[in-house]
Each structure stands twice: as structure tokens, then as C-alpha cells.
Structure prediction request, 253 residues.
Amino acid sequence: MKLNNDPEIILDNVSFAYKQRNILEDVNLQIKQNEFASIVGPNGGGKTTLLKLVLGLIKPDKGKISIFGKTPDQVRQRIGYMPQYAHLDMDFPANVMDVVMMGRLSKTTLWFSKKDRVEALNSIAEVGMTDFIDTEFNELSGGQKQRILIARALCSRPDIMLLDEPTANVDLKTEENLFAILQKLNSNMTILLVSHDLGFVSKYVKSVICVNRRVVIHPTTLMDGTLIKDIYHGDLRMVRHDHRCSETGHTYD
Ligand SMILES: Nc1ncnc2c1ncn2[C@@H]1O[C@H](COP(=O)(O)OP(=O)(O)OP(=O)(O)O)[C@@H](O)[C@H]1O
Prediction:
């Protein structure tokens, strides 16, 4: 696979406000192909808002967003999205296959093709859930639901995957399994993932985007200490914070 060194996602001086309340201000961000970045920051800091801007669900008040050199709307089909689990209303009967097939719905056709079904089955296999194809979504455990939601985002075969807290409410073992799935996918797609953890992230994460009205990108440092591994039960990377992320923005020590 040939890597393109030009940034895939560019946010150029982007600001966004809800009802005149500034949520994101002067955001400059460049994400390259095959990046695996974790988006961290305090509650209400603007992480989901950042994902929605990249998806084109909301538009910047100021500045420009370019993805593969186009607007988010123009490349929407190339982006997979897994929304925050807590925001998902799945209070209707649907089995695993139905839920994953929703990821193949397009604006142009109202029916599914054989290819749609094959892609859905492949995505379910990729997250290790083939045995659950006919199971009701609501009967799955939290971790199994998260896997199926990843499969739903995956089955449109996106070049970029946006995931909003995919490991919320799952135990550490399940979290590790989900990250292992994402690492495999990262070999041919760019991954941006909102995470609740501020100090440590999975060893697969290459950089950390810190969002608190303003946005700063950090490198990650591989942890090889057994103590941290014992405490967190997994291989982790530490976020190198050489500044403070505060309400008023980012100040350097
Ligand atoms: N549709 C909306 N209308 C008005 N305000 C909104 C709307 N959606 C989000 N907000 C506000 O924008 C701010 C940023 O919200 P956002 O969901 O981006 O934060 P977040 O960093 O993802 O938070 P969390 O960690 O709690 O999920 C919050 O103060 C929130 O109340």
C-alpha cells in the first residue's frame, strides 16, 4: 500500500459556536493517512463537536475543513462513524445483521444488494461476532454492542473511521480486544477516536489530540514499565503533556 504524505484531514483556523457560545476556537489540525489518534479532553470540551465538523454534520462558523482536498459533504461516503453509545437509541427490535446493514444505507438506493450483504458479513467477521448474526441487538452485552457498532461503521469500507468513545462502559479486557481490532483496521485506514482517558492511551495510539475549546496535538510515549502494566492491565502509551490543558486554553510550563 502506498502512503500519501499529504495531510488527509486539514482544519484551517476553524471556529464553531452553539447559540453564540464558542465551543471550538481557531482550530488548526492536520491528520495524515493511517494516523491513529485519540481525542481527549474534559466533558463539554468539544470532542464530539470536532468529530461532527469532520463528518460535515455541522459547519464551521469560521475557517475551512478539507478532507482529501474536498469538503466533508463531498467525501461523506469515505468516512465511517460510530456515535457515542450513550446517545444511541436502539429501542426497537433489530438483530445484529439489521444493525450492521444500516451502515450500507445510501442516499441513492432504498434496497440492499448482494454486495451490501457480503460487506456486512465481512465486517461482522472482522469484529469476531459471526456467531451472533441472528441475535437481537438488545440482547448483546455492552462490549458486544460496541463491536457491532464498529462493524456498522466499517461496512461502508471507509478510508477514515471516526469513533466516539468506543470503549466507554466496557471492561479492560474488552477494551484491549477492541483496540486490537482497531489496530488491524489502522493498516489501511485513518482512525480518530474519542477517549475518556486523559493520561494513558492504548499502545496502538500514535498521537493524542487534546480538545478544550482550543486544540493541541501531542505525541505519545511508549510505556514499557511493568508497574503501569500491572495497574492498568494492558500495554499503554503515556500522553506527553508539556503544557496544561485548562478552561482558558493551553498554557506551557
Ligand atoms: N446541539 C447542541 N446545542 C447546543 N449546545 C450543544 C449541542 N451539542 C453540544 N453542545 C454543547 O457544546 C459543548 C461541547 O459539547 P461536546 O459534545 O462536543 O463535548 P465533549 O467534549 O464531546 O463532551 P463529553 O466528554 O461530555 O462527551 C457542551 O458544552 C455542550 O453542552
